[in-house]
Amino acid sequence: MKANFFKSPVSVLVGLGLPTKIGTVMEAYQLLADWPVHSRDGTHNFAFKACRAALTGEIETETARGLFVAFAKKHDLLAPELGPELVAMKGKSNPHMV
Q1: Do the domain assignments include residue 47?
Q2: pLDDT tier at 83 (50, 70, 90 boundaries)?
């Protein structure tokens, strides 16, 4: 199985709300595999199967990405987009920001 990189990563909130970039089908597949069984639904099922199919070359990587994004949206996992001013600040050290 290959990594199948997404054209652009999907930023999701995991754990205690920490933003994480999912950049490959394998990373999306792992997040979906670790998703609690009692919280799985139709969008999880479609995204999980799509990731598995992309890993075996049955479907395109970006198709699996689209279904993963749909799953993340439904479950409020998508991290908010950073505005240009926050992106510029991200690389700077500020003792007042954690």
Answers
A1: yes
A2: low
